[in-house]
Structures are given as structure tokens and as C-alpha cells.
């Protein structure tokens, strides 16, 4: 696996608000403050998660138009951070700046001069953070030998996910003719910010598959799906793009979704990925840590628990939802159907608090007992309900996508609305005002990053499924069929290119 090369910083809205209050002074002068941070290490990206502000004592910093600080302040903050296994970030303000900020000579000299000291005390690189007067953040990372690398973004996780992009590393995607109606809904600036988000959909079934296609069509550049499972006949009534041929070719849900994403994408250079991993595996979790937003489209307790944790420990908003259909016991008619959606993030209740996740079920799932017919029989448990209806499956998809747009775009400045539930029988949309719980285990893990309690392990069901798929794909019948499918697809693409050439740039 490639070592992390990209860097980012993130903080909950509470830390952002406190730092803006400290650093953006009424007198317009620059100010400075140190913050502890926890590293969060993904497969290709490392993030610095801001944890706790360490305010300067009166003698440790001076404000004189610019701001200066003492080595004692750095030593004190670094020592506090080291006791908790954390690093430190040096945050200062540019009150008259806007957007991503470049460092002045004095700012660069100050950060460089303390890079080695911070690393020697904490064992972590020093992060430099700059707050512009319009609330935009910028960041860079200093190695022990005082070499700096700019971050690609700084994320503030609140009811509105606010991301400041480093345009040099993550340039604004070029608007396309195919996006005219999308862009007219919120303007080029919003489209440019939205399109740069890295979004992962975990679970490529009916809901996850639809969400991924809609995001690619909206113009997002970086969209990925993760699912280890195969397409089966039971998927056909809820995934209109899946066919009997896909099943005969033993195509995974991920490969099928990736194929559809490439057809739907409107970005000029889409960066689309499919991962045949389980989020319950270490590699699957590390891949997830590379993304800015995650959609939870899984129905098993263990993967939901992993995603529930990452929303808090690693400051990656997770948009969760699903549908429940209640048929009459005699199988004749439907009593009701409900679908829910909510954003998991610091300041919102977790899945356990909203009773969408039972920790006891997580343990059973980890042990494989929820798939064991003998255990289910002896424990007199009911097998999990799997009802779904194609005509209704689009509803939880729409609900989760609306949560995403509220989180990323904040229509009317309001941000995501909290947990929602729609009751089909009465056509009633209701808010579920479950308050955050200060005693919640997951809330208390906010910003832990790599120090989180690991819920991942060997996922035997995923390993068995992938192994069976590889065996099937090596059979002569499937190999010949897949070769024919590749030739047909290539011919279709060439025909489309000849009949519908790309418009001139």
C-alpha cells in the first residue's frame, strides 16, 4: 500500500468557533495560539485533527500589529501534547486576508525555527495554521528537518461542512456544458467547492449504487464505492442497471457500480474508484480515512459500528440512512414503510444514541453468528428483515442525498437538519430531535484519530466471498463470457465516440 502523500487538517465546529474568537481581534491585529492535534492516517492521506486549544499565558505572547511568542510557550504546549500522544499546531491570524493564505517571511521563519523542537518533544511534525479574516483556514506541515509541505485542504466539521481548498493542489474543476443546469442551481463557486469533495459510498446495493451515480452526474470529481459482495438475482428488482449478464459474469457490486459511474460522470477528468474491501477490515478503514464525506449504505451492525466511530474519532461526516418495510403477517398487503436519514458528526447523536445500532449485535456480527443458521435457530432469533421495493428504494436515496447537499451546500445558510424520518402510511416527514449525549462513548472519542479503539479485524465473510468470486472467474465459461463482454463494451465506446464527438474546448 502506498504511504500517505497527501495532507489535510480538520477540526470540529466548536474548535473553529473558539479559535476565531481568539484570533480575529476587534482591533484588527494578528494573534497567535497553539493547539494540540491527533494524526489520522489513511491509505494515501494523513489528517491533523485539532483537539484542544492551549491558550498563551500573558508573558508567553505579545501583540504588536503582528504577534510574537516565546519558546517557553511552545515547550509548555508540546509537553502537554506529548503526555497525550499528540502533536501541536501553531495557529495565527491574517485578519485582512481571504481564502487560502501564503506565509509572510516572518511567519515562515517563526514556524521553521520551532519545527525541530516540536518534533523532538512530541514525536509528531509541527502543523502551521493560518486563519484569514473571512474564516478560511490554510495549513502546512513541518518535518523535523524544517521542510514544509502544504496541505490540500482544511475541513471544519459542523452543521455545514466548510472546506478551504488549496487551489494549487486541488484546482477548481472546469465547468462542463453537461453541468449547466446543475451549476445554475447554486453557481460556479459552490459547484467548484462541492465538486472537489472526496466522497466514498460504503455499500453498493440499491441505495448506495443510486447515490454514487447521482454524485458522479452532479460533477463530483472524486467518487468511490466500497463493497466486497457479488451481484445476485435478488438485486435485480432494485438495481435497474444490473442484468442477468452481470450475474453470469460473477461481476462484483463494486465493479458494476464503477462501470455505471464512468458512464454517468460529468466531470472533465473524473477520479473514480471501486474497492472490493470491507470497511470492517484494516485496509478498508484506512481507505475510508482518505475521504471527506462517507455515505453509509450498509445494513449489518459491524460495518455500521465502524462508520459510526469514524464520524467522531476521525472527523469524517457519515451520512446514514435506510428503509424499513412492514408487511402484514399473513403476507397480504403492507402495513407501513419508513425511511430515515441523518448525518453522524460531533454535535449530533450517534447511531447508538438514536437506537439505530445495538452494540450487542456488533459483537455477534464480528463473531459471524448473525450468519449462522444454527445459532439463529438455537437463540430463537428472527432472521433480519430484508424487504425492499424498487419503487420505494429511491426515497431513502433522495433523503440521504438531501442531507449531503444540506451539509455541503447549506441552502439558506442552515446546514444539515439532524435525523429525519418519513412515514409512508401517513405521508408524514418528522424531525427526530435526539440531543447529543455527553456521556456517549463515541462523542467522547471525537478527534482521537489513530488512537481510536480499533473495531476492524479479519472479515471472514468478505474473504470467503472474494475467494469464491476469483475461483468462479477462472472457469473457462466465465473467462470466455468476460472476454466477449470486454470486446462488446469497447465497440460500444468507439461507436459512441464516432457518433457523439466531444465538444471543442
From TrEMBL:
Q: Which Pfam families match?
A: ThiF (PF00899)
Q: Which domain of life is it from?
A: Bacteria
Where in this chain does the record put each THIF-type NAD/FAD binding fold domain? 178-360
| InterPro entries for this protein | ThiF_NAD_FAD-bd, Ubiquitin-activating_enz
Q: What is this protein called?
A: THIF-type NAD/FAD binding fold domain-containing protein
Amino acid at each position: 500500500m502506498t504511504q500517505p502523500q497527501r495532507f489535510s487538517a480538520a477540526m470540529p465546529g466548536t474548535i473553529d468557533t473558539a479559535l476565531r474568537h481568539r484570533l480575529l481581534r476587534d482591533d484588527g491585529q494578528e494573534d497567535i495560539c497553539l493547539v494540540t492535534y491527533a494524526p489520522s492516517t489513511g491509505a494515501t492521506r494523513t489528517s491533523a485533527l485539532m483537539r484542544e486549544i492551549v491558550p498563551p499565558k500573558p508573558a508567553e505572547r505579545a501583540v504588536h500589529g503582528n504577534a510574537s511568542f516565546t519558546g517557553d510557550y511552545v515547550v509548555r504546549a508540546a509537553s502537554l501534547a506529548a503526555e497525550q500522544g499528540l502533536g501541536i499546531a501553531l495557529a495565527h491570524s491574517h485578519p485582512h486576508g481571504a481564502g487560502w493564505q501564503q506565509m509572510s517571511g516572518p511567519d515562515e521563519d517563526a514556524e521553521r525555527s520551532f519545527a525541530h523542537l516540536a518534533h523532538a518533544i512530541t514525536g509528531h511534525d509541527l502543523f502551521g495554521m493560518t486563519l484569514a479574516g473571512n474564516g478560511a483556514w490554510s495549513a502546512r506541515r513541518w518535518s523535523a528537518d524544517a521542510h514544509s509541505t502544504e496541505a490540500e485542504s482544511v475541513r471544519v466539521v459542523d452543521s455545514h461542512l466548510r472546506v478551504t481548498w488549496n487551489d494549487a493542489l486541488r484546482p477548481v474543476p472546469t465547468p462542463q456544458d453537461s453541468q449547466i443546469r446543475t451549476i445554475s442551481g447554486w453557481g460556479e463557486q459552490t459547484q467548484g467547492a462541492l465538486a472537489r469533495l472526496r466522497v466514498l459510498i460504503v455499500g453498493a446495493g440499491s441505495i448506495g449504487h443510486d447515490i454514487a451515480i447521482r454524485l458522479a452526474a452532479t460533477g463530483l470529481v472524486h467518487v468511490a464505492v466500497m463493497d466486497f459482495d457479488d451481484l445476485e438475482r435478488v438485486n435485480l428488482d432494485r438495481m435497474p442497471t444490473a442484468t442477468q449478464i452481470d450475474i453470469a459474469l460473477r461481476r462484483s457490486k463494486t465493479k458494476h457500480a464503477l462501470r455505471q459511474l464512468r458512464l454517468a460522470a460529468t466531470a472533465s477528468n473524473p477520479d473514480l474508484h471501486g474497492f472490493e474491501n470491507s470497511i470492517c477490515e484494516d485496509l478498508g478503514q484506512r481507505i475510508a480515512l482518505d475521504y471527506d464525506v462517507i455515505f453509509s449504505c450498509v445494513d449489518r451492525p459491524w460495518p455500521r459500528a465502524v462508520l459510526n466511530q469514524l464520524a467522531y474519532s476521525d472527523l469524517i461526516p457519515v451520512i446514514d440512512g435506510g428503509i424499513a418495510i412492514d408487511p402484514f403477517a399473513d403476507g397480504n398487503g403492507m402495513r407501513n414503510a419508513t425511511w430515515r436519514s441523518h448525518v453522524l458528526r460531533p454535535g449530533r447523536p450517534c447511531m447508538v444514541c438514536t437506537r439505530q445500532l445495538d452494540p450487542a449485535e456488533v459483537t455477534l456480527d464480528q463473531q459471524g453468528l448473525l450468519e449462522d443458521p444454527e445459532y439463529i435457530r438455537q437463540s430463537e432469533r428472527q432472521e433480519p428483515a430484508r424487504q425492499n421495493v424498487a419503487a420505494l428504494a429511491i426515497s431513502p436515496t433522495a433523503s440521504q442525498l438531501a442531507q449531503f447537499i444540506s451539509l455541503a451546500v447549506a441552502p439558506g445558510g442552515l446546514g444539515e437538519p439532524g435525523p429525519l424520518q418519513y412515514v409512508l402510511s401517513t405521508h408524514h416527514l418528522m424531525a427526530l430531535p435526539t440531543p447529543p449525549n455527553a456521556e456517549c462513548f463515541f462523542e467522547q472519542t471525537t478527534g482521537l484519530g489513530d488512537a481510536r479503539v480499533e473495531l476492524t479485524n479479519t472479515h471472514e465473510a468478505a474473504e470467503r466471498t472474494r475467494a469464491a468470486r476469483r475461483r468462479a472467474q477462472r472457469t473457462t465459461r466465465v473467462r470466455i463470457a468476460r472476454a466477449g463482454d470486454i470486446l462488446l463494451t469497447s465497440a460500444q465506446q468507439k461507436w459512441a465516440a464516432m457518433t457523439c464527438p466531444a465538444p471543442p474546448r
